[in-house]
Amino acid sequence: MIKYVLKRLTLLVPVLIGVSIIVFVIMHVLTSDPTSIILGQHASADQIAALRKQLGLDNPLYIQYLDFLKGLLHRDFGNSLITQTSVWSELTTRLPATVELAFTAIIIASIVGVTIGVISAIKQNSIVDYISMLGALLGVSMPIFWLGLILIVIFSLQLHILPVSSRIQVGMEPVHITGFYILDSIFTGNMAALQDSIKHLMLPAIALAAYSTAIIARMTRSTMLEVIGQDYIRTARAKGLGERKIIIGHALKNAFIPIITVIGLQLGSLLGGAVLTETVFAWPGIGSYTIEAILKSDYPVVQGAVMLMAVIFVSVNLLVDLIYGLLDPRIKYS
């Protein structure tokens, strides 16, 4: 397994280099000059030239890219062109909020998706199956930002059950949820803060989980149908085993490898960029931070955020591959 992990880590290097080249070229070729945003529209040509020199934007692109690559090797993503704060510091500060949101969403999606998929497979071609797959189709087709707005209108503006955004009223000052707010509340025993954090997390987590729920449900259904038709399932029924034990102990266990693959890919995607959800709900994670940086042509922030998302995505995929061996000892790493 150690050789396999080292081989996979080696193969990740060209992938990450390719990602860095693509995002660097896109940001420097297709976006506007950030100096005009920093100085304003009425800045003189001399002021713009001086700022470009100060920020290193007057260097050739290959020099800028090599500087960017050298910084990555030392875990230095540079400073924001707009705020002059460390990009790495900002990303690590906002990462816990994205992790908390993504993990909550994938837990919801996994529980609901696997349950719906199993029930649909057991009751194939029934009204329950048709309704479940129709719901999965809607989940795949529905844009996250539209679903988020609908949830806000229903549960926040009409029913007044859940808050609109990630802001919590603390005294007279509204503050953003930052860090692992739920875990902090649990460890400190602050039940009031825990209830507030769960309320603020529910709507964005549900909106983010909708697409993944649909994907997981469809994969679970198709895999379960394939497994249920196997000879060993018929043998188990012939021996008189209970249906629940057959489905959970035999069919679902053997169908779980492709399901784990989908869950892992979805988790990587959610951790890598819950951009629209964080923007709609003003969630202070990496996604909303990246959108702000794109609008301001803040090259270092966008480059650093995309690279961090890429590392997270490929790391989750590697972890999923390693879990295969735990689920099925017959799998050998090579």
Automatic annotation (TrEMBL):
Bilayer topology term: Multi-pass membrane protein
Name the record gives this protein: Dipeptide transport system permease protein DppB
Top-level lineage group: Bacteria
Residue ranges of every copy of the ABC transmembrane type-1 domain listed in the record: 95-324
Localization terms from the record: Cell membrane
Pfam families, alphabetized: BPD_transp_1 (PF00528), BPD_transp_1_N (PF19300)
Cellular component aspect of the GO annotation: plasma membrane
GO annotation terms (biological process): transmembrane transport
Keywords: Cell membrane, Membrane, Transmembrane, Transmembrane helix, Transport
Matching SUPFAM superfamilies: MetI-like
Organism per entry: Clostridium magnum DSM 2767
Classification via InterPro entries: BPD_transp_1_N, MetI-like, MetI-like_sf
TM region positions: 9-30, 101-122, 134-157, 201-220, 255-276, 305-327
Homology family: Belongs to the binding-protein-dependent transport system permease family.
PANTHER family: DIPEPTIDE TRANSPORT SYSTEM PERMEASE PROTEIN DPPB-RELATED (PTHR43163)
